[in-house]
């Protein structure tokens, strides 16, 4: 039952994301023109405000309840941003093309924020609904024993919690105050806990020889701009992973007393290198499966308005 819950949940999050992401739709259309009907998702990310009912601990416990396990964690000091990544509990020995995407969950360190910023964040985090973790854990226990009704309720509970911002919209002044110190935190204040990007596993596509070739396809055939921060490609064989992403496309976003221009999403691309180059990789564990903080730091800047 729990396997079905997490698969249904991830598919729902992906379907909602792709329906709202013009970039994703253009990329899918471009891939179909090349005869690529199916691709594998590598990971997606959800960032939350820190608070009594919000944050990385709550997200971790929710995904743990449906059968995800923590694989690693790191910190982005420039953004005061803690993050960890999780994968399906049975992914290690599964074919790489059949594993659900990893989930990256994150929040921010309140004690490293200036008092002015901290007060704004605490104000809105305090207005969130109660954490669903205790109820989710109870339902997960029943679903594990085969209770279909509990499984359905668990899916609905988590879906509702991950639907975005459940606190009021900030004012333009509050947004710009936070943005001047931490642009990523300002983005989360506006949009809340919802996937800010999904990532394609380019290394699992037969049509591209490397990430450079895929980027050429994105720029010349799909005609989308790429994130230039830290170089178009972040990483490479020496660290086990190469990453790139589209530049976010600003849209008009309403706030409490006006509107701003801010990207809502972007699409990331990864090339994961095999752990043992002399052996043909097949399973998920045959590839490097972690992340490099300094590269993730640059990729997430696709959400900034100046991209």
TrEMBL record:
Task: Look up keyword Oxidoreductase and say if it applies.
Answer: yes
What is the main EC category here?
oxidoreductase
Short name of one Pfam family: HGLS
In its UniProt entry, the species of origin is given as: Aquicella lusitana
Enumerate the GO terms in the molecular function aspect.
dioxygenase activity
Q: Which cofactor does it need?
A: Fe(2+)
Alphabetized, the UniProt keywords read: Dioxygenase, Iron, Oxidoreductase
InterPro entries for this protein: HGLS
- Please report which protein family the annotation says this sequence is part of: Belongs to the 2-oxoadipate dioxygenase/decarboxylase family.
Protein name, as recorded: 2-oxoadipate dioxygenase/decarboxylase
Asked whether the UniProt record includes Ligase among its keywords, one would answer no
Q: Which Gene3D superfamilies match?
A: 3.10.180.50
Q: What is its EC number?
A: 1.13.11.93
